[in-house]
Amino acid sequence: MAVKFPEGFLWGGATAANQLEGAYKEGGKGLNLADVLPGGKENRLKLLASTGFDFEIDKSKYTYPNHEGIDFYHRYKEDIALFAEMGFKTFRLSIAWSRIFPNGDELEPNEEGLAFYDRVFDELAKYNIEPLVTIAHYETPLHLIKEYGGWRNRKLVEFFERYVSVLFNRYKDKVKYWLTFNEINGATHMPLLGLGFSPESEETRLQDSFQGLHHQFVASAKAVQLGHEIIPGSQIGCMLIYAPVYSFDSNPENVLYAQQEARIFNNFCGDVQVRGEYPSFIDRYFRENNIHIEMEDGDLQLIKEGTVDFISFSYYMSRTDKKNKTPEEIGQGNLIGGVKNPFLEASDWGWEIDPVGLRIALNELYGRYQVPLFVVENGLGAYDTVEEDGSINDDYRIDYLREHIRAMGEAVDDGVELMGYTSWGCIDLVSASSGEMSKRYGFIYVDKQDDGSGSFERSRKKSFYWYKNVIATNGEEL
Prior knowledge:
40% of the residues lie in helices and 12% in strands. By secondary structure, the protein is an alpha/beta fold. The longest helix is centred in the middle third of the chain and has 29 residues, at 202-230.
């Protein structure tokens, strides 16, 4: 039976400024976090898990693929035309904070940066493609990291509010859908990306991460209120990384452990941003981990009044876990840990592939919150081969996406209110987790390699034509 998606379903693709724009010093842009992250899986992953990163660029030791990205800054018209050819209804992109405020703490914005996004939004409007804009996507201005210590510092709430106010006033007639912080709940695992600081030690990581999250909750609530005030009819969502947590077996100890892990990772940030309050289960976690959140008077009221309109989330994998793991049992590849699930296959990068988990995720989220949902990241990072005739036969990507879209359709049939779907990396871009170009997600191939070589030429993969038909039939033909 064909799956049925609602009329007006927002099909499209997703990207982030730091992974595709390039032009890292052009147009008055300041340096941001991504500009100092070296390329290469070994370098990047080691750094994301380390303590005491110095946030310096050392080109004698490392490459920096984010500096060029895929040159979307100069090629956005060509890329948007390709998105339109696929039939995109929406395009998720982020704004690089340091293009608008190069240091992050200025009083006046950078006009060149604002004008660039005006041009991008105007180009999207030409093709009736609705922008879905992430305000903060792993792009904290470097000055705010070095000078203030990132989101551990309350001052960033003020700087973020100024940045958001400028965006909403400038683009109020061009952008209706906004997301505040990308994958906000991933911050405790990788505070470098989400919170703009490298832990001083493992002992301080949790305390500093949850304090930084509190500041982001306050900043997000302020953004929601500002958005509703400045752009009547706007829709402002949170953005989570979501992974259902399965118990390894039916041992009640493992079932309880999986439930507790899921609550902290999947539910904590959603409860604050959607329900507008800290959940009761977090009190014991804070107590047992010696976490003390500094709050100002009015913070909790502000969070209560600044709840989001919808939940967006990324879904790449599920997690299987047990209470007492041996080092040999710990899964290799899944960024969020756990043990190997014997029922699932994995991608080239070790991420377990679980389409049914997406249906589970949608039902869990909608059952808990009863607000509209939006799958804004989902895709398969894989090695692609360009054939002699120039074709790229990525049937493995089509198979992956087909099964995940089918699972979404089943969730809609289950009664879930689903707004749309934006496949991650709709055009090849630099991987956030591994700093590689060879980990490709796109429907569009970009001739850029891990060593920096390549022409940047774009070409359509087999999945390009497949996804075009999916959109044309509103998901009925998979």
